[in-house]
Amino acid sequence: MKTLPEIRERVDLTPHNSLAIAASARYFARITHREQVGATLAWADEKNLPVLIVGGGSNLVFRADIDGLVVHMALAGRHWRDISNEAATLVLGAGENWHDAVLYAARSGYRGIENLALIPGTCGAAPVQNIGAYGVELADTLVCVTALDRSSGKQVTLSAEACNFAYRDSLFKQQPERYLILDVHLRLSRSRPFQLGYGELAAYFGDTPVAKLNAEDVAEAVMAVRRRKLPDPQRLPNAGSFFKNPVVSQNVFEQLQSRFSDLVAYPLQHGQSVKLAAGWLIEQCGWKGYRNKWVGVHNRQALVLINHGGGSGAQLLALAQEIRESVQARFGVELEQEPLTQPAID
Known about the structure:
The chain is of the alpha+beta class. The chain folds into three domains: 67 residues, Uridine Diphospho-n-acetylenolpyruvylglucosamine Reductase, domain 2 (2-Layer Sandwich); 152 residues, Uridine Diphospho-n-acetylenolpyruvylglucosamine Reductase, domain 3; 105 residues, UDP-N-acetylenolpyruvoylglucosamine reductase, C-terminal domain (Uridine Diphospho-n-acetylenolpyruvylglucosamine Reductase, domain 1, Alpha-Beta Complex), CATH 3.90.78.10. The protein contains nine helices and 19 strands. The strands form six sheets. It has a five-stranded antiparallel sheet with strand order 6-7-12-10-11, with no helix packed on it. It has a four-stranded mixed sheet with strand order 1-2-5-3, with helices on one face. A three-stranded antiparallel sheet has the order 13-18-17, covered by helices on one side. Helix 5 crosses helix 6.
């Protein structure tokens, strides 16, 4: 096995982003073995090339061609360790498909990530965004991440605390050039209580006793709910939720609620702030279902921006900016983009 993988030139990145935005990589390498990582990065360093790491490309907006090396992390592998009667740790290679991993865990009888079913992307990308849905975040089960620290050239193990997780945020977003994730370790349980507090999940199960449910049942419910609301990226290119749900102070929330009685919001645990539903804010500004020739807003979920075919990253970002400005003007609330823009905007 060669240590350095094949380095290809002028590679089309359309298949490597779920928005199907056309862009080109000056150089492209697909990593399938850990031994290739160091050699690939050393090759880029020798040529003084910037490096972009991609997995499933479900959290990326390409606004231009990449004048550097794009590294596609395709490290496979999943296994169990630290197994007891009650719990076990699932170790997932960075290139493993996240949704497949969720179903694998659920079918094995383990709970903890079933609410994260059908989230597109790879396991290595999951900690970057601290993916979450229906009251569950990756941080809830993550034990540690194995990564290559590019500043030292050494492999490191980062605990969940060291990952500095927050709402759709992490150390890996805060220091985007430093770490290359190799695998993730999740501690799952056979008896962890299910998180079914969201109305759509509760309605799905109706009067079914929780004691009769298993992780597969919950994953199937999550999949059904998501499919009703969200478009399949394979059929309608999108990057999932394009904006974060903004978090505001209790005082700001009360002021908004006095003006908009039907404001959709979710109190946070510590009680000092409130998470607003970005989709509701966008819909109130009239964007739901909007489209121009190339890009638009989904007609069932206003949080989702879509590429109708041939849309560029610049066109999508221009639409996002218009949406941001209209929400700011009406509600005084700033929306933050969730997908990463590449090349990054300084």
